[in-house]
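Per reviewer request, we include the raw input and output of the structure prediction for the construct analysed in the revised manuscript.
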Amino acid sequence: MNRAIINSARLSPHRLSGPLVRAGAVVTAVILALGLATLAGPTRPATAAAEDAGVVEFRSPSTSGVLTSGGSSTEFGMAPPQGAACPGSGSGTPAYRWQTFFVSAAVDVASLTFASGPNPVAGQFVSPMYDNAGGTAVINKNPAANPLGLIAGIPTVSFAAFTPAGTVAPGDYKVGFACTQAGSNVRFWTIRITVTADASDSPAGFTWVVAAPPVATTTTTIASTSTTVAPAATSTTTKPATTSTTASGSTTTSVAGGPVVTAGNLTPAPGSDVAFTASGFVAGSTVTFDITGDFGTVNNADLRSEVATTQTLGTAVADASGVASKTFKAPDRTGSYTVRATSGARTASMVINVTVVLATTIGSSPVTPTTASGSGSLPTQTTQPKVLATTGSSSIPLVVWAILLLVVGRIAILVARPLRLRPPKS
């Protein structure tokens, strides 16, 4: 009997419980740390494509008029579309920043990454823009908290910092803004310019002119191999796969670049007025505006149908510069909508996000939508209210780790408990 007790004491796991418990605690702590690091990481997938949100304009600091050309010392303001904003503010979670960039036309802006300005791209010119006052790079600026994400406080800039002459080679370039989160581009606005070397320019030795954005060229194919048409005293030869066709008694109008449509407000309130501007169309042509989205049941003067996917907003005639403008009411239902401008084979589109601005909740007071400025009241939304997006990280992984800790702790207690032996039956 004494020998059995001695052997049992030698085989008892009690002596091994201390190291096992410590080892289990270390492993569990490592797993928990890895889980927390994963939760604290960026919430935006690395493969998500950045959103091309519109076109930038160069404007005179003194008159606010649009500038289409200048020299390296020409001062100008970079103006994104009205209401241009990042998905969040500089102090939110996750935090966003807005940046500027000046890059070769061959650079894919959507794939740019940022640190102290845009990161280098092999074989391409890549730089931030610099303010005109002190030559400071315009980078890592904080979007506003109210209105959320608004790009504000934009300084006057110029190309004077790009010295000596020859730093910027002649060619086509993209200039603009980018919203970034953890260095990744999530939304951007651009303008294209063409740079020409000019020895008389000071200080950088070049001039620039705004270029129209490139688009796929519309081609009219004629059945015959070659047709010569002679209206009045002129003669035009049209062949298959050419970009324009001249018929007898009429002439075609060449339009540089492609059409673009912009909105005065990218995040309008339901039922509020939104001004749309379509450019790059043939002068005198009729431009049709339509909108696509989930309208629900609407009560809106510009959207007369009930539930529909695409609805026509109306038409406008392009002026001598090929610009057509029209103001319409935003849908009554919150969400994303695609607005398209079309005239013949030329078309352009953009996205607006109809959003309800929420008032601050105090105690148990209900959250109520604010009304848009202007005459009249906000149309009644008869569909379900907007559900706010979930922010931050999911708590499910933390619950999993807590359960794991409880299980490991229970195992440690069982291992540490000394073995109880029953006395042998007599």
